[in-house]
Design a protein that fits this description.
Layout: H1 2-10, E1 19-24, E2 27-34, E3 45-52, E4 55-65, E5 71-79, E6 84-87, E7 89-92, E8 95-98, H2 100-119, H3 122-125, H4 128-131
Antiparallel strand pairs: 1-2, 2-3, 3-4, 4-5, 5-6, 7-8
Length: about 130
Amino acid sequence: MQTILAILKQAGGWNHGLYLKIENPPYAALVIDAMDESGPCGLPALSVAQYGDALCKPEMCFELGLADGPQLNPFYYRNDYAGIEQWSRYIYDGDYIHLSDVHMQHERLARQWDNNLRLQGFSEAFDPHKHMRG
C-alpha cells in the first residue's frame, strides 16, 4: 500500500486521532482512519476504506510496521457490495490466529487496490490543509 504510505507521510505520519477523507471525483472518497485498538500483533492499526452510497467498497484494516521501513500488513477485509467480511489475522482466547491463505489473498487485494488508488491519483489529490480535520 505505497499510495497510503505516501499519503500518511504527507499527513505527518500515523497518530492517535488521525482521520483523512480525500475527495477525488469521480472516484469514491478515500478515508484513512487511525483505529483506537492495536492490530493483532500489538502494532498501530489503520482502517482504509472507500465509500460509495455509505457502503464500503472496500475497507481493509492494516497494522503499521516500521521495521525495515514503513509497511502496512493487512488483517481485515470487508466489501459491502459483495457481502464479504474476513479476518486473516486476529487474537482469539488469547491466541494469535493467522489464516495464511486468507492473509495471502488480503495481500493480493491490497496490492491491486493500491495500484488502483495510484492510477486514480489519490496521492496527488491529497492536500493536508484540505483533507485533515483539525
